[in-house]
Design a protein that fits this description.
Layout (H helix, E strand, L loop, with lengths): L2 H4 L9 H15 L3 H21 L3 H9 L5 H23 L5 H24 L2 H21 L9 H18 L3 H10 L4 H25 L5 H25 L4 H25 L1
Helix pairs in contact: 3-4, 3-11, 4-5, 4-12, 5-10, 5-11, 6-8, 6-10, 7-9, 7-12, 8-9, 9-10
């Protein structure tokens, strides 16, 4: 008798044809190589730590890292789904620190900017979006590094115009941060108020932007699946970041995050220019 026929079914080697079929099914389901998944997981963990610590930065880091290897229209909706999960996780602990007087006109402006940005995302070529993303990140890094400060809070008109610009960036490149983060960090608000207001703004714009992206057909089953796979990494990173907020000097993580963002933005620009 053939020994392989006598062996228990569970111990027999899987036929090569079946192995190829399984591999093809997984590749068709996830549509990412192991390298992209590794980069996405590491970037997600680092970004979630930064977000839990500062209240911002998640979309900046993950989009900058992953869009180097995949098209922005496929990456940005996934990142916003994860960003929404973080905001929902953080909002109970920061709700008392939100400055609604400043935030309300910004949100009104964002409702105008988001639809325009989503329309742009759905139609612009991938490399054009990569250039926009990289330039937005480098601008934010420069302004945050310089540490500009406002002596008084701007009025409702200026705040609403900031909201329009931030909403446009949220819809087009998934990153309201370059505008809204600079606005809040430059304001005379206390650190806790800045963090709470940023979390609330990102939560609201994520909901609005994702609704528009669903309408535009950008939130696919594949996008949702990737977000589900990365969700445990997000929750772990956010918990670590919230813990670091109570024990670490804010400038240490802030400086490291700015350096990382600059490197990622330059990498994205290099990819476009070299191709």
């Amino acid at each position: 008798m053939n020994p392989s026929m006598a062996a228990p079914a569970l111990l027999r080697p899987i036929p090569a044809a079946k192995t190829r079929k399984i591999k093809m099914s997984v590749e068709m389901l996830l549509d990412w190589s192991p390298l992209i998944w590794l980069i996405a997981a590491v970037a997600t963990l680092v970004a979630a730590i930064v977000r839990g610590f500062t209240g911002f930065g998640f979309a900046l880091i993950v989009i900058a890292a992953v869009t180097i290897l995949d098209v922005p229209a496929a990456v940005i909706p996934m990142v916003l789904l994860l960003d929404l999960a973080i905001s929902l996780h953080m909002i109970p602990s920061v709700r008392r620190d939100i400055n609604w007087t400043v935030l309300t006109p910004i949100l009104v402006g964002a409702t105008i900017g988001v639809p325009i940005g989503v329309a742009l995302l759905a139609h612009l070529p991938a490399d054009s979006m990569r250039i926009m993303i990289a330039l937005c990140i480098l601008t934010a890094v420069f302004v945050l590094h310089k540490g500009y400060r406002l002596e008084t809070l701007p009025g409702p008109l200026i705040a609403s115009l900031v909201g329009v610009a931030a909403g446009f960036l949220a819809g087009s490149v998934g990153m309201p941060g370059p505008i809204i983060v600079v606005f809040f960090l430059a304001s005379p608000l206390a650190v806790a108020n800045v963090r709470g207001s940023l979390v609330a703004f990102i939560l609201m714009t994520d909901i609005l932007t994702l609704a528009m992206m669903i309408w535009a057909g950008l939130v696919t089953e594949l996008v949702i699946l990737r977000a589900v796979v990365l969700l445990p990494v997000v929750l772990l990173g956010t918990a670590l970041g919230k813990r670091l907020f109570t024990i670490t000097d804010p400038e240490t993580l802030r400086s490291g995050a700015l350096l990382l963002l600059a490197i990622l933005a330059l990498g994205a620009l290099s990819r476009v220019l070299l191709s």
